[in-house]
Amino acid sequence: MSDLLSIGLSGLRSSQTSLTVTGHNITNVNTPGYSRQQSVQQTGIPQYSGAGYIGSGSQVVDVRRLASDFLFSQVRTATSQANELNAFQGQIEQLDSLLSDTTTGISPALQKFFAALQTAAANPSATEGREALLAEAQGISKSFNTLYDQLDKQNSLINQQLGSLANQVNSLASSVASYNDAIAKAKAAGGQPNDLIDAREETIRKLSELIGVQAVPQDDNTVNLFIGTGQPLVVGNTTSALQVVPGTSDPTRFQVQLVSGSSVQTITNQISGGQMGGLIAYRDTALDASYNKLGQIALTFADAVNKQLGQGLDLAGNAGSKLFGDINDPTITALRVLAQSTNTGTVSPNLNITDTSKLGASDYRLEYDGSNFTARRLSDNAAISVTVTGTGPYTLSFADGSGADQGFQVTMNSLPPAGDGFTLQPTRRGAADIDTVLTKADQLAFAGTARSEATTNNRGSGAIGQPKLTNGPSPVVVSDLQNLFGANGLTLSFDAATNSLTGTLPPGATLSYLSPSTTGLTSGQTNTMRLDYTDPGTGNSYSYEFTLSGVPQAGDSFTLGMNSKGISDNSNALALSALQSKATVGGTGSTGASFNDAYGGLVERIGTLTAQVRNNADASITVLKQAQDSRDSLSGVNLDEEAANLIQFQQYYSASAQVIQVARSLFDTLIGAFR
């Protein structure tokens, strides 16, 4: 009877434990990361008797945690990817909206500027049209500035977010290390701390929302965590810390460092996954490219407009003034070169733009080893050759592998110490630095610098076209033009014997034939000629092209002169209008693009990338849900199942109690027999 009583008691204990486990499951149904538990029973050690082995009841030998490391790993990976894409999507959708907006975008401002220019060109002497053009110039400058400011704010916000996320990562890593320590101690004492393991797993999952982590289980039931390409974040109960600091090469681009004891390692480029990975990937693939592309367009636009204005004359007959600020202003050129924070020298280089049509939308890395300079284009990591001229100041020119000039030069008063490095940013600040500086509308150079006319009493039908300046300094030097054309202009007469124009040209001037013949005029056709001139005093060179059509007669004359009174002339204004469709950004001809096309390309690229990221983010949510469902199918608490278990174990408990009741009745009967 004592054996029967013991068996009943063991059944009570086993059923009670099972009921407790079931109740624990039910109460934690909404606990994040909880894995359902199951009691494991086995028979007690049987006792030998003359009749054989007789059972001694049951016992609970384990409370098993129903979980799979593989399924948890899938959830972590899917969580990391989903949060990375979500962070990327949140940032790039802002950028996409900003670039394509009809208020903040550049395309509407470009259209308004060129529309105002065409209106002003229709009546070049009217003040109203000129004033309207100045207003639109200020508007497009403001549009570039505003767009840059918004990009800069986004960059600053990313820096702040990286710092906040690093602090959260450090906090969660410390929690994982504490759990490791507690779990290892519990395991060493012979226990299985299921709830602690669940809490640690949930902490690691939360960590994967912030940054991609690899979890490696150890023999002592601890888990080591690694980030990036294998950098240790948690090893046992020891943690490393993340810190976010201004970049060594660019203080505006914060970098992530891993601090382990006295060792500090920059791991920005190794980070992937989680919100940190998404922010860094967005900055590297979209934000930096937008900075540079927008700056490239702004620099090319300002330079092209200024140069064309400089090749015309204003209402007072003076050379055209700049509408926008000088792209190579000394206060700007110094900001285009960032010295590495670890530099030991104090050299302060300047970066001057030499040809905006050759500029690319990229930053560059320049290093000096004590003997030679090396450079690399950061957008595609291509090696760039560096040519050094001068002996103080030194001028550095840059060309890619095909020999293509990069459109800028760097000047240094002295050579830096060996090991110093610099980040070159020819276009990054272009949109921030563009500024409308012309305030007087009568200084807009709408008139061409030269005019032509046929002599009134010519006998033939020869007609001369207006000369077009195809090459010359900007701004032109009025005294050079006066030296070329003289007070009364250059008179060219038709010589029927040689089919050519003859006349007295000043020193440094030559007249040549371009088409259809290169040796003389072809009567009855449109002949293109070129007047080249190099001023002996200044050394400035000019090239004018003009046409002569019809059939001139012997002795017919034509005059080329300076357009000093071209108040109603709009030839240079029309040349300015032609810039709207001219390929000037990123090259000339078939290799370049117009201002609108270049900006449209930027908007299209960001829009396409936004759509891709949005689709990938939606897919990642589906993958994450599938991973969570797979994990929950094993580890999740099913209330219906637990309710059934509760009834089942309650019945077991009642049956065990009945066994005890029988043992008690038998004992009472036995005691009664001796009374």
Descriptive keywords:
675 residues, alpha+beta, 4 domains, eight-stranded antiparallel beta sheet, five-stranded antiparallel beta sheet, 12 helices, 28 strands, 22% strand
Descriptive notes:
The protein is an alpha+beta fold and 675 residues long. It has four domains: 103 residues, no CATH class; 186 residues, no CATH class; 107 residues, no CATH class; 114 residues, no CATH class. 43% of the residues lie in helices and 22% in strands. The strands form seven sheets. It has an eight-stranded antiparallel sheet with strand order 12-19-14-15-16-17-18-13, with no helix packed on it. Helix 3 runs antiparallel to helix 10 and helix 4 runs antiparallel to helix 6. It starts with a helix and ends with a helix. This is Flagellar hook-associated protein 1. Belongs to the flagella basal body rod proteins family.
- Helix content class: 40-55%
Number of domains: 4
Mean pLDDT over all positions: 91
Q: Could you tell me the strand content as a percent range?
A: 15-25%
Number of DSSP-assigned strands: 28
Number of DSSP helical runs: 12
| Class from helix and strand fractions | alpha+beta
Overall outline: elongated
Across the major sheet, the strand order is: 12-19-14-15-16-17-18-13
Q: What about the largest sheet?
A: 8 strands, antiparallel
Query: C-alpha Rg, in Å?
Result: 41 Å
Q: Give unreliable regions as ranges.
A: none
State the end-to-end CA separation: 19 Å
Domain Flagellar hook-associated protein FlgK helical: 93-324
Pfam family, one: Flg_bbr_C
Organism: Pseudomonas triclosanedens
Family: Belongs to the flagella basal body rod proteins family.
